[in-house]
Design goal:
Radius of gyration: 20 Å
Order of helices and strands: HHHHHEEHEHEHEEHEHEE
Strand content: 15-25%
CATH architecture of the largest domain: 3-Layer(aba) Sandwich
Low-confidence stretches: none
Mean pLDDT: 89
Number of strands: 9
Largest sheet: 7 strands, mixed
């Protein structure tokens, strides 16, 4: 039987930009251990069955499948979330939405809407930080709603609910202090759709028309009908779309329009406040 060290040494992922991390995550998951265990006990032997599973997972990664889909989970904010191929993989960039929501809205009771919730990552992160808030997450994909609900139940966050809705379609008459979304924002012809992890993620959660702004336009146009006075709209977008999104917000009548930068210095989200 091979040792942990042997498997780590011989594993190769030539096309992955995070090869060492990927290998360690995959092996740790097969063993049911932490990554630190691999370095603490490198001489420990691995069973034939575990070695075979590790080899199979490595091959999936060599073919480009994201580690999160192979493992069925992904960390986001302070949460460990179940993920699946019918939803986007939660990314650190989207944590800027969470940070900004916590900044613009007080910790007192409020209703918050997460449009296109996917795995529920953003809604659940906010629910974990603000027990007084009531989070509603909606998605047009039934399997995504079910996935978000499983994450909610496992995390025992009773101040969040998830339901089926295509953007605002099932929310007639409801009003929120804050609406936020990480909608599709990639242009249909963007070459990045054929590269890396994006090849495996659902196109319906990525592509929004010829310029990538179709869903952002719709959300900005319809959001005022669902916002309370002084309510906020927070939108993630591509780093080259900030100016266009700010213009859309201003044209629709939003005030305090601004863009926020992610850790890479890119203008990753734009915000606006619906006036009295």
């Amino acid at each position: 039987m091979p040792s942990i060290e042997t498997l780590l040494t011989n594993a190769d992922l030539p096309d992955s930009p995070s090869a060492r991390l990927d290998v360690e995550l995959l092996l740790a998951a097969v063993l049911g251990k932490s990554r630190s265990h691999l370095h603490t006990w490198p001489e420990r032997q691995v069973s034939a069955e575990q070695a075979a599973q590790f080899a199979a997972d490595l091959q999936r990664r060599r073919l480009g499948e994201p580690v999160a889909y192979i493992l069925g989970r992904q960390g986001f904010w302070s949460l460990d979330l179940e993920v699946a191929a019918h939803t986007l993989i939660p990314r650190p960039d989207s944590e800027l939405l969470v940070e900004t929501a916590l900044q613009v809205l007080a910790a007192s009771p409020a209703r918050v809407l997460d449009l296109g919730t996917g795995s529920g990552a953003i809604a659940l992160a906010l629910a974990s930080e603000r027990p007084a808030w009531r989070l509603t997450g909606v998605d047009r994909v039934d399997a995504a709603v079910a996935l978000a609900e499983r994450n909610r139940q496992r995390l025992q966050l009773d101040n969040a609910v998830f339901t089926h809705s295509h953007w605002f379609s099932a929310l007639a008459g409801e009003r929120f202090e804050l609406i936020l979304s990480n909608p599709p924002y990639i242009a249909a012809g963007d070459q990045h759709l054929n590269q890396g992890d994006l090849r495996f993620e659902p196109a319906s959660a990525l592509v929004a028309g010829v310029d990538g702004l179709d869903d952002l336009r719709l959300i900005i146009a319809q959001a005022p009908a669902y916002l309370l006075a002084n309510g906020w709209l927070l939108l993630e977008h591509g780093f080259e779309q900030a100016e266009a999104v700010r213009q859309l917000l201003s044209q629709r009548g939003f005030a305090s329009v601004d863009s926020r930068r992610d850790l890479g210095g890119h203008q990753r989200i734009s915000v606006g406040q619906w006036p009295l």
